[in-house]
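Objective 1b. Sequence-to-structure analysis of RNA polymerase sigma-70 factor, ECF subfamily.
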Amino acid sequence: MVSKELGEKAWKCVADEFMERLQQHQRYLFHVAYRLTGNTEDAKDLTQETLWHAHRKSNKYVYEKSLKAWLRTLMTNRFRDQKRKKSLHIVTLDDTFIQSEPPPDAVMSVEEQVEQKILLEHIKKEIRELPEIYRRVIILRHYHGLSYTEISQELDIPEGTVKTQLFRSRKMLKERLSRKLER
């Protein structure tokens, strides 16, 4: 019983010491975060998230390596993950989204309806600008609702080719929309 209490005290002491070491790098982390995000509030949030994440992952830190470099890597990865999640959320291209009408059970505010309509127009414009080989499979799949087999028969191409062309056209659309939304 006594050795268990000593073990817990020792662990708490190590955790407190690690937290102090993390706090020593807070100012440095804020400067890195500011360069990544470009504004003070996001930089503060990213700094706090990184410190919290580092504290949770303290068992993964190798003490022989630079704490500063480890923290910078954690922060950069966290920033990239957040940015990736935001861009993926914005330009998700699935069967239900590309359809011209929102689902009837969707309850959206006027602002959300306008934003969706604008985004849908951007998507339609980008689809029109795709090379013919990719545009036709997107239109048949998302606007006419044809299955892979039906598209294959309609275009007289193998089903595997249909899947490949759909994958490539969606990827192309996603890249184009991401670039436009970043501007």
